[in-house]
């Protein structure tokens, strides 16, 4: 127990401890309904981001089976080489060392596009640019069409608006024939991670206007702010959102008894749209 509290003290002091890799945005399609279009994890600024298709595919169906839970599925990929794609937009402000992971699957009886690549674009008016090591094939499985922690170029860091697209690059399907309108492509487990720039400095400064106590905490955590808070998001060490609240006040209490033991990050947005953060450690009673 003494070792735990010593580590907590160093963590809260913030002089030399970094949060390391953080999930900026993720789409894992956990529920199978249309709400899965929105990111289900990541930093607060990306939780209102939605996945879409461009180029004229069919509508996205979120009810189909994915790698673990559900996936995003679309048809209408015919004649879509270098045009039809999956697209997400995120912010990477204050983050660098960006990496992208994802999984895709082609339909079995209705095979979708085989050839793909990952591209990025800075802002709406930017030019789509290939991501190095972002060329891949998709087959009727969840193991072939996998991007595993593909690094994004340095120019993608610290951007208010970064677009990523998974674009088909030929009109050949996974069976070696032309892609038909009924051809299926599924995408799942999109995860974009990065590292906070100047993490220790930023976190120490932000916690001056947002305090949490008791810390460590076993059951109820009090959150206090100098400014009125309109919303908060609680994330675990991987960046996954575990709690949300809209307290609309300066002080409020959170029941954290259901959270596993570990470190958590609170991101609070004030009524003046100022983002502040604080950290706490959840312990057993």
Fold topology:
Layout: H1 2-13, E1 21-27, E2 41-42, E3 52-54, E4 61-65, E5 70-74, E6 85-90, E7 95-106, E8 115-122, E9 129-137, E10 145-151, E11 162-168, E12 185-196, H2 199-206, E13 210-213, E14 220-236, E15 241-245, E16 249-255, E17 262-270, E18 275-282
Antiparallel strand pairs: 1-2, 1-12, 3-6, 4-5, 5-12, 6-11, 7-10, 7-12, 8-9, 8-11, 13-14, 14-15, 14-16, 14-17, 17-18
Describe, in plain words, how this protein is organized in 3D:
The protein has 285 residues and is mainly β. The chain folds into two domains: 176 residues, Galactose-binding domain-like (Jelly Rolls); 76 residues, Immunoglobulin-like, CATH 2.60.40.3080. It is built from two helices and 18 strands. It is elongated, with a radius of gyration of 21 Å.
Low-pLDDT regions: 1-19, 199-208
User: How many distinct domains?
Assistant: 2
* Alpha carbon gyration radius: 21 Å
Helical residue percent? under 10%
In terms of DSSP E residues, the strand content is over 45%
Distance between the termini: 12 Å
Series of secondary-structure elements, N-terminal to C-terminal = HEEEEEEEEEEEEHEEEEEE
CATH class of the largest domain: Mainly Beta
For this structure, what is the CATH homologous superfamily of the largest domain? Galactose-binding domain-like
Give the overall pLDDT as a whole number. Answer: 86
What overall form do the CA principal axes indicate?
elongated
> What would you call the structural class?
mainly beta
Count of DSSP strands: 18
Q: Please outline the major beta sheet.
A: 7 strands, antiparallel
